[in-house]
Amino acid sequence: MIKFCTFNHRLLMSVDIKMLAKNLNLSISTISRALRDSYEISDVTKTRVREMAEKLNYHPNPYASSLRKHKSMTIAVVIPEITNNFFALAINGIEYVAQEKNYHVLIYLTHENIKKEIGFANHLQNGRVDGIMISLSSETNNYDHLIELKSKGVPIVFFDRICESIESSYITTDDYESGFAATEHLISCGCKKIAYLDLSRYLSISNKRMLGYMSALEKHHISIDERLVMRFTNNNAENEELISKMLTGPNRPDGIFASVEKLAIASYNVCERLKIKIPEQLKIISFSNLEISSLLSPSLTTITQPAYEIGKQAALQLFRYLEKKNMMNVHEKIILKSTLIPRGSTRA
Amino acid sequence: MIKFCTFNHRLLMSVDIKMLAKNLNLSISTISRALRDSYEISDVTKTRVREMAEKLNYHPNPYASSLRKHKSMTIAVVIPEITNNFFALAINGIEYVAQEKNYHVLIYLTHENIKKEIGFANHLQNGRVDGIMISLSSETNNYDHLIELKSKGVPIVFFDRICESIESSYITTDDYESGFAATEHLISCGCKKIAYLDLSRYLSISNKRMLGYMSALEKHHISIDERLVMRFTNNNAENEELISKMLTGPNRPDGIFASVEKLAIASYNVCERLKIKIPEQLKIISFSNLEISSLLSPSLTTITQPAYEIGKQAALQLFRYLEKKNMMNVHEKIILKSTLIPRGSTRA
DNA sequence: CTGTTAGCGCGTTCAA
DNA sequence: TTGAACGCGCTAACAG
């Protein structure tokens, strides 16, 4: 009665639709339809089938179904890193929506490496997923891999680190305004020489934040010192070295605006090593989603993005693509607001 | 020359093995073998096939392959939450190994809910993944769903929040010792009344940490006050309420040992609200993987687990199961060491 | 070294 | 309302 087959080098009993059919003296197609709750099947048969399925602990093979339906019930999330509360929160939002829709979530980490991003994009042309959500790597300055992916018909939603030159939906935050507010905050704390720290010269969010920074300086008649606009890599040790040089050099700033949490943390580490007091001697503001109280971080003022909501909105938009055939060319550009959370710096 | 088919409600050109065969005047199976670099195929043919595949931008359909081979090239990671540096780091390690092995990683979040965990476990019987790595939810006090999954032949590796009553590999840390060390650390800081805060009364790691806590108290002749051994839920507001009551009640402790980072943070938040000074009036130690400098958290002493390494080891063990048919009954119990990182509290 | 053939498990025509 | 038969795209057994 029970069929055995070697599966992955081990014995596994496989209950399939055929076995249900045999046990119930019904045809395979009837079973299939009953399980899919088709209108063509009588209620009596349906319940008989369901009961037998339950009894034999039947689980439909997702790959057979995907092959037949050309639908994987799976989405991909491609992000630079996961050890970053922003992305962790975004995944939380994405996963929430995916669970609602009975979808599965594949995770791909580029580690800020464009080659990996290209590799994932190329690979995902094969139908493994029904759509992807992506936040670009800091190295990404060319979008051919994404254009090709899109041309294959794979729906793409960008979030946070978006690509504006591709016509697709995106969810992001008011980076220009936040950059402006962050800089103005430091100015209002008395800073005269404010450094801007960033990971990338390519990302749209980086450039918008920087523009905000520059506008704020201009507004307050502070001249822009190009030497204080700095780019870093994924290498923390190197980054700290650079920051250390900046903080001991002739252009030493009295305020730092870090566009990424990890650069703020690197700055903190350097300050501790150099015995620079924060915020007395140096004020720091940073984009960050660390969920810690001000007691834990008495001197960290942050710009906090609605990360969970961003993930959720991005997923919802992706499902809008997936659920309605005529939505493929209806793109949404959603811009959410970030929040400046003042802490120690203001009290200083 | 190019075949079209409706895919997911949209037009998609599908280049399959058959088309390559036609274009090259070869049989389908030859193509298949050439692409899989089979020894039976001549180098000339192989390169011809590869070039044509490249030219037509051929991507093998993973679901067809999985259906045929009974192998999904996919693993599942089931964890309680992702907004927690421990799990984020663990995923990082897992993903590193998976990328090496050309595997795909599905993420499932239980949100500390046993019903979700059961749902995932039952669902994953269907062959969607070749194996799973799991860290139990704090509610999990029954393992039937996992036993059934294992009986279906799905390899399982437990990490951190393991299940000792199921014969399978696991990776965890020296929780008893860490609990002991954490408590002794507080005692050496002068604490006489130490509270133990935990999420669960079921998890093995919780119990081991608590045993360590109790042993340390005993060793130093401090009697155990059951009212200071507290369990919390996933509801932060409720947790802070409970902590607040504890810190204002007659049994007010002078030290807190939080077995989970979020409980330490809740404690910090409460202290801030109640104007309790840390570490002067209350010392706190916590399991935590926050990657922040001591400047950022001047008063947080932590027990840090080698989270990345745990993820990596867990994945490696899973692949040991997957790669060798005779490894299914060879289980490894790996116990890594955690590190106590003293901060403000010691200086206090 | 290559081709022919037969499924993997399911969904969906078409026919009854 | 149900059944028979075909094929999704690929791999593997068996021939040659």
TrEMBL record, chains A, B:
InterPro entries in the record: HTH_LacI, LacI/GalR-like_sensor, Lambda_DNA-bd_dom_sf, Peripla_BP_I
Domain HTH lacI-type: from-to ranges: 15-69
PROSITE patterns from the UniProt entry: HTH_LACI_2 (PS50932)
Keyword Transcription in annotation: yes
Pfam family of the protein (one): LacI
GO molecular function, one term: DNA-binding transcription factor activity
Keyword annotations of the record: DNA-binding, Transcription, Transcription regulation
Keyword Transcription regulation part of the UniProt annotation: yes
Protein name, entry field: LacI family transcriptional regulator
Organism: Ginsengibacter hankyongi
Lineage summary: Bacteria, Pseudomonadati, Bacteroidota, Chitinophagia, Chitinophagales
